[in-house]
Write a structure and sequence with these properties.
This protein has eleven helices and no strands. The chain is mainly alpha-helical. It has one domain (4-273). Helix 4 packs across helix 5.
């Protein structure tokens, strides 16, 4: 099997062939209004380290942990977006973007072309469930959202952290399998669980990604947070194509190791470009 570095470079090569898809991680990064506000309001030096998995759409925030005061729910649980009165619209937009994005990743790997809006229609319901589930699971924690925690609650969340990482590892392949297997969220989650337990190439790739996120986060967070709004603008512009490339690499890896997914052939980035040209002009 190709090395982690080979996979990443091939993914970045495919990202350049389908650069328009990077608009999705760009938009989703800008939708995290609360994180942007935290950085703009921050004064002083800040460097953070972040352990991340290649789950969902990989954005700037995969590598940047905004400045916080002490341990809060925000620091260990995924955010649910803007204020509650715009939450329904946020959920619908995120589900639509994610459905179109993951469907288009799979199509681009297979044929070199994709129809983003057709994929939105095709996968919207499954990705709506995928978007809602984490929010439902962390809903009880939002009572304390953004508030400093007491010592007992701090202990609870410290114990929760390894469980959170374990669950993320076990199920992060779910959105990829939805489009690869053309299946529902529950079946995809079962498939993701099986791939994670099998280990092998999946485990090695995950370790490589976690190590990459940890190392990159120090540099990216220092640049983005300490430069404020300018750092956010440049960070989003630079990291969105990178996130796209990493999503491509992860999609291809999962297709390779999952016996129920289609085969996408060579990891050579040049082959991806050749397929893209032979498939004709991308409709998007």
């Amino acid at each position: 099997m190709p090395s982690f570095g080979t996979r990443v470079m091939a993914g970045l090569g495919r990202s350049q062939e389908h650069l328009l898809l990077a608009v999705v991680p760009l938009i989703m990064a800008l939708m995290e209004v609360e994180k942007i506000q935290q950085i703009v309001a921050h004064h002083g030096m800040h460097v953070s380290f972040r352990l991340s998995f290649p789950s969902g759409v990989i954005t700037l925030w995969t590598f940047v942990e905004g400045p916080t005061q002490g341990l809060t729910v925000d620091s260990i649980a995924p955010t649910v977006g803007p204020m509650a009165f715009v939450l329904p619209a946020y959920i619908v937009i995120q589900a639509a973007l994610t459905a179109g994005y993951f469907g288009s990743l799979a199509d681009a790997l297979e044929t070199g072309a994709y129809d983003f809006f057709a994929n939105v229609r095709r996968y919207f319901v499954q990705f709506l469930v995928y978007t809602l589930l984490p929010m439902v699971l962390i809903a009880p924690l939002l009572v304390f959202d953004g508030q400093p925690l007491s010592s007992s609650l701090t202990l609870f969340f410290v114990l929760f952290i390894p469980i959170f990482f374990a669950l993320t590892y076990l199920f992060y392949a779910t959105p990829y399998l939805v489009v690869l297997r053309e299946t529902d969220i529950i079946s995809a989650a079962k498939g993701a669980y099986g791939l994670a337990l099998d280990g092998g190439a999946f485990w090695r790739y995950t370790l490589g990604f976690v190590a990459l996120s940890l190392l990159a986060s120090a540099f990216v967070s220092a640049f983005v947070v300490n430069l404020g709004l300018v750092g956010i603008i440049f960070g989003v512009l630079i990291l969105s194509p990178v996130g796209l490339g990493l999503n491509f690499a992860t999609m291809h890896l999962i297709a390779d190791i999952d016996p129920n997914s289609p085969s996408y052939g060579s990891w050579d980035a040049a082959d991806a470009g050749a397929r893209s040209k032979s498939a004709g002009t991308n409709p998007n």
